[in-house]
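User: 4-deoxy-L-threo-5-hexosulose-uronate ketol-isomerase. Structure?
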Amino acid sequence: MTTEYETRYAIGQQEAKGYDTQALRDAFLADKLMQPGKVYWIYSHYERFMVGGAVPTDKPLSLESLDALKSGCFTSRREVGVINVGGAGTIEVDETVYSLAKGEALYIGAGEHNVTFHSDAADAPACFYLNSAPAHASYPCKKVGLDDANVLHLGSPETANERDIYQLIINGVVETCQLQMGLTRLYPGSVWNTMPAHQHDRRNEVYFYLDVPEGQAVSHFMGEPQETRHIFVQNHQAVLSPPWSIHCGCGTANYAFIWGMAGENLDYDDMDKFPASELR
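Assistant: Predicted structure:
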């Protein structure tokens, strides 16, 4: 099979308080998204948000519907966001072909679309990172390059969190129903990806880590502000962050991550912040 998926049910904060390390990883870590020659999905019950990966090698891969969707076409009632984190590749949506270099994004609106993923070279395959959310309307497909993104420069060397935030699939750049995605890249010498830590009580968020150097790792912090937990992650792994959980992270070297969100609104700044002095 070239398409596989698993289901993750929602976990409450009271349950998570009793989890050991392995239970936390089983519930919130996505550690096998990028599998050569496969499309792999996690169907999450947080906002019915889906996170996945497609890695075409010597053959193209199709975006196939899943039993869980009860739909003949994956995009019948869903929008999809794609960011390439590997070699150069193309995505064919119906009869339109979009070329995506590393870091470039494609928004695919809801509709009866035929979607196919291709790599330019099998020995340097594209790694298409996928997010999907239910859609109440159909908006046009749109490619977004790094030059098209809205870029925020935040942090400083003094607080070890100097970073550029590329808002790729976000209100004001692309018209979407609820999906938002972007890429944050830390500067050399900076390791903290999000400070102050915050919650999105009106939506979920998923963090996908990339360009983590070999032998290095990122400690992703989650949990309630007064009851935090951590999960160590490697390159091309993600953490599902429930609405009740904070999210931030610190690496043993600089790295990048992709954030994806869906929920009640499209306000990027809709968050509840918690300064470091308040965390426990």
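The chain has one domain: 3-278. DSSP finds two helices and 23 strands in the chain.
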